[in-house]
């Protein structure tokens, strides 16, 4: 009877000796993996595999196996030329999941209405999902000829103002992963279809603080866009101001660019965010 009771108790509770084996087996692997992520997150300039191995007291083969798994899951990134490993965006997302509880859509709406009143064009709010732009909010222009998108609709990142604004805020590795998966399809004669030209465009966007879709997805349509940032300088979403090229003429681009930069700056401040230096 005693043996039976002991057997039942063990099935209902922890395995025998579980407290003494907290760092063994899978638990030890998990501890090593999380310790590696924590150490890597403290190194803003990245770390070499050998340094991680030495500092953590782990075999280099073990560290490499963990890094490779994390890289597949986007928890870490590698600069292959320098041999450095960096913490990835997925680790930031998971580690700071509470940030997503903030309703940045509700915060952005009053500013979107004000931007429509000021500039007279449709204003959209979009995010990147699975390598594509998804439009999640819109305030329409009152003009008869205006740009309208269906909420939830998708657009290519390389051929939209929102997409290019968000790409410009990403790391080179992040951009490369999206391009590898989605490619650079041509939609009009103005679409950017080479990585070199896109790279140059993204650098220009970083310098001027806003992106321009100049008939790159639809002939006759222009969009000016800029990103909203969180407190760590990571882009949450982007706002675009869109309309026919007949109204968004060259002479208005500077004015509209400044207006949308001011709008996203105000939203970013309300969210407690921080605009990166190269976007200021």
Provide a descriptive summary of the structure in words.
This protein is α+β, with helices and mostly antiparallel strands and 280 residues long. It has two domains: 2-95, Arc Repressor Mutant, subunit A (Orthogonal Bundle), CATH 1.10.10.10; 100-279, GAF domain (Beta-Lactamase), CATH 3.30.450. The protein has helices at 2-12, 25-41, 49-56, 60-72, 89-95, 104-119, 161-167, 172-182, 195-208, 250-270; strands at 47-48, 76-79, 84-87, 122-129, 132-139, 154-156, 211-214, 221-229, 235-244. The strands form two sheets. The protein has a six-stranded antiparallel β-sheet, sandwiched between helices. Strands 1-3-2 form a three-stranded antiparallel β-sheet. Mean pLDDT is 85; it is low at 1-25.
Supply the key terms.
6-stranded antiparallel sheet; Beta-Lactamase; 2 domains; 280 residues; Arc Repressor Mutant, subunit A; 3-stranded antiparallel sheet; disordered N terminus; elongated; 10 helices; alpha+beta
């Amino acid at each position: 009877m005693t043996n039976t009771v002991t057997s039942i108790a063990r099935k209902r509770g922890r395995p025998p000796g579980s407290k003494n084996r907290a760092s063994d087996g899978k638990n030890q692997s998990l501890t090593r993996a999380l310790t590696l992520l924590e150490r890597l997150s403290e190194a803003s300039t990245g770390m070499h595999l050998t340094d991680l191995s030495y500092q953590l007291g782990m075999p280099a083969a073990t560290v490499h196996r963990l890094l490779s798994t994390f890289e597949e899951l986007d928890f870490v990134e590698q600069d292959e030329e320098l041999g450095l490993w960096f913490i990835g965006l997925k680790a930031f997302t998971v580690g700071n999941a509470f940030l997503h509880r903030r309703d940045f859509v509700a915060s952005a709406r009053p500013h979107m209405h004000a931007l429509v009143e000021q500039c007279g064009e449709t204003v959209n709010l979009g995010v990147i999902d699975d390598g594509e732009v998804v439009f999640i909010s819109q305030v329409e222009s009152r003009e008869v000829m205006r740009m309208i998108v269906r909420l939830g609709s998708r657009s290519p990142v390389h051929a939209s103002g929102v997409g290019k604004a968000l790409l410009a805020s990403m790391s080179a590795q992040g951009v490369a992963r999206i391009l590898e998966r989605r490619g650079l399809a041509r939609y009009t004669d103005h679409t950017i279809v080479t990585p070199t030209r896109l790279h140059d465009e993204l650098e220009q966007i970083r310098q001027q603080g806003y992106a321009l879709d100049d008939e790159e997805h639809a002939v006759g349509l222009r969009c000016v866009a800029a990103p909203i940032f969180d407190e760590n300088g990571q882009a949450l979403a982007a706002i675009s101001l869109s309309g026919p090229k007949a109204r968004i003429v060259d002479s208005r681009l500077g004015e509209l660019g400044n207006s949308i930069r001011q709008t996203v700056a105000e939203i970013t401040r309300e969210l407690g965010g921080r605009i990166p230096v190269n976007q200021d």
